[in-house]
User: Which sequence fits this backbone?
């Protein structure tokens, strides 16, 4: 009797996905949405425990770089190129600046205000995908981007009553900074695919972690902060998660167009952010913020239209 191989009796999951490209993209998109949402919530958990944000952020990136560095150490030819170093370093600078601004804002403002503004920054790489990399965007999607900007205005002017009285000027300054910094960061991440580095995304990720971790450490040293043991453990834990999440996101961007990926990511995350902020962090949004959230969700749905 002829022996039958496993591949003949059980079709591989990878082969199944190849037969259905839409399902392939959908699965990558779903994984990326979950990974990105969890990453931001871990930093909020750290902030609730009164951890020093630059310390946790820096240890997170250094952990990521350290794990990848150990992996490359056992490879005979890690094969770094000028392009991987360049794009990784630029993205690392964008990531650390964006994360430091966002974590600082989380110490001063409500969760819904900061995280929704963070999510709205996903409009920036959508525009970049069209203008720089030639992806398509129809009239409905363009209207969605304008609606998203209007939603950002409502969210910026909203927040809890205490926020408006005590930190109004800070909010008006920091929320646009979050929008711009995180938008640039997402554009750099999208750049990896169009630079032809999908097969070397781990090399890019190593440079991101090394650059962001080094700059963040410099900030901690200049501030003369001595890391507590809990901050170190939290940073390492987030770094482990970030390695997986970042790998999923970069892999997803190799399969999903940016004009679909970023709006879907933002729309899913906005809903989950507000749901969690209300149930866990006990921060119900007031009327302006609610209108801003509605506009944000509507905008991201419009951008998703084919």
Assistant:
């Amino acid at each position: 009797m002829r022996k039958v191989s496993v591949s003949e009796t059980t079709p591989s999951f990878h082969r199944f996905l190849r037969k259905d490209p839409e399902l392939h993209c959908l699965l990558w998109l779903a994984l990326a949405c979950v990974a990105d949402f969890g990453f931001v919530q871990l930093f909020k958990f750290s902030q609730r425990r009164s951890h020093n944000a630059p310390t946790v952020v820096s240890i997170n990136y250094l952990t990521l770089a350290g794990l990848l560095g150990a992996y490359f150490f056992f490879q005979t030819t890690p094969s770094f190129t000028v392009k991987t170093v360049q794009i990784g370093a630029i993205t690392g600078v964008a990531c650390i600046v964006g994360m430091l601004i966002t974590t600082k804002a989380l110490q001063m403002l409500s969760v819904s205000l900061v995280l929704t503004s963070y999510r709205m920054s996903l409009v920036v790489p959508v525009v970049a995908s069209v203008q720089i990399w030639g992806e398509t965007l129809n009239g409905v999607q363009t209207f969605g981007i304008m609606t998203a900007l209007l939603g950002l205005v409502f969210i910026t002017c909203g927040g809890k009553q205490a926020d408006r009285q005590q930190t109004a000027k800070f909010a008006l300054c920091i929320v646009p900074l979050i929008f711009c910094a995180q938008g640039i960061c997402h554009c750099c991440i999208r750049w990896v695919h169009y630079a032809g580095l999908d097969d070397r995304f781990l090399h890019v990720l190593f440079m991101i972690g090394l650059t962001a971790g080094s700059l963040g450490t410099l900030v901690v040293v200049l501030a003369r902060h001595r890391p507590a043991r809990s901050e170190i453990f939290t940073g390492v834990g987030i770094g482990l998660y970030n390695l997986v999440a970042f790998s999923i996101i970069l892999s997803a961007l190799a399969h999903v167009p940016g004009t679909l990926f970023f709006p879907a990511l933002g729309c899913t995350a906005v809903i989950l952010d507000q749901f969690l902020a209300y149930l866990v962090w006990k921060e119900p949004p007031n009327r302006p913020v609610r209108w801003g959230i509605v506009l944000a969700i509507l905008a991201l749905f419009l951008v998703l239209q084919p």
